[in-house]
Amino acid sequence: MTALRKTTVALLPDAAPLAIRSERASDVAAREALLDACFGDNRHMRACQRLRDGRAPAEGLSLSAVSKGRLVGTLRLWHVSAGGIPALMLGPLAVEACSRQLGVGAALMDHALAAAKARGHRAVVLLGDAPYYARFGFSAAKTSELSLPGAFDRDRLLGLELCDGALDGACGMIVPTGERSPKTKAVRARKAKSLLLPRVA
């Protein structure tokens, strides 16, 4: 029996259907183009990117927003240790410019947080604009003693407890704990194999 894939569908104000679903391999090129458009060429240099480099996103928590067969938004979550406390790092959240006033970002956030809680995750942290993310329950109340690799704006380091007290005592560096991505594993294996091969002059 084939398992049914749950997809959230909402109607945008202009009546175009919006589906929030798990990211597919066919979404990757469009996702990367969207991230480039939203965050610019230097997005790979940002502090939170250090937590994602070479890692796979948390299982079931890579989401795409699709309207009329086109990717209009993306959001992923990643396993981290928040000063020794297991948590998820949310981001990047990106929505194409012409869809930003249609509730796409909020739909992605609501779906992602509900899915994270359903999977038993206890806390989420992110680096973002406090006025925007406050509507979802994020605040800096329990992140003041946490740090990120590289320079960052402390007022933008926010947390959300999916279970009461999950971020109590959070202190120290936020570090990645997720699985290495398959691509990274393959590169490492090739490098290791090359070291074992005899060199030819």
UniProtKB/TrEMBL annotation:
The lineage of its organism: Bacteria, Pseudomonadati, Pseudomonadota, Alphaproteobacteria, Hyphomicrobiales. The keyword Transferase applies. It comes from Bradyrhizobium retamae. CDD domains: NAT_SF. The keyword Transferase applies. This is GCN5 family acetyltransferase. One of its GO terms (molecular function) is acyltransferase activity, transferring groups other than amino-acyl groups. Keywords: Transferase. Residues 18-159 form the N-acetyltransferase domain. Pfam families: Acetyltransf_9.
